[in-house]
Amino acid sequence: MAEVSSDSLALKSESPLWLAAMVFGLMAAFWPVVSDLVSHIVTHPWARGAMVFPLLVWIAVRAEGANAGLERRWVLRLALPIALAIELVAVAGDVVRLGRVALVLAVAASLFGTGRAGLLTLSLTIWLIPLPSAIAEILSPSLESTWVQIAASPISGVSFAAGPDGLMLSTEEGGRMVLVPAAGGLALAYALAGLAWFQGLMRRLPMHRLMGRSAIAALFSLPIHLGVIGLATIMLSLSPMSSAAQRLLEHGPWLIVVLAGLVLAVRERVPNTAGETI
Prior knowledge:
Number of strands: 3
Shape: elongated
Structural class: mainly alpha
Helix content: 55-70%
Strand order of the largest sheet: 1-2-3
Strand content: 5-15%
Number of helices: 12
Radius of gyration: 22 Å
Largest sheet: 3 strands, antiparallel
């Protein structure tokens, strides 16, 4: 009987077809959670920064390559049933968003258990899900009020007041713009911290430097968010058409995250074991 070498088995488990099967298997098993997550991202612009992180996780995992370590099948046998149980409880209890924790656990366990990535690299999977609304809105409405006071105070003809959907900015000409509670800037800070974490992983930085880099990136969200609100407020004051200002306010932050993530994906890509660029 012909023997099958360990190298051939490893090659088979690392093939693109095997990876595709794993991805589709996880999507099928966690479809209620994945469907709810996609719906949430489509409905809430402030959450769309999460769209770039599947690509970044894939790049980070590919970059680690052979350094990831040995396969740990017992992790799969332990973690996947726990993840599926969490999903079942979440769906049955009509709290599907709780199942996002199970999705991240399943993805991380699959990659760690098959020896594709180490724990530090897999910490990036946290950013596969957007910042929870309860956290994004935790400082509302005081956070939005602070932003608007800073951005709108130098601009004449713009007033603001609390409204049913958030903080309402208005002009004497009838322009309207709403700053929703979740758009206070915490989601942007969270996403930028994730981008910095990815860059640090690609540069093989130790944990303390990863944390410091991410904290600095989160602080950079302050002037960026203020700039977006300020520019939207200027647009509102100059034009009776408030829709453009509202679109900038809603879509500016997540577009910044996605574009910055794509730039990092190109800059930080590394050669794989075959000498090709990933």
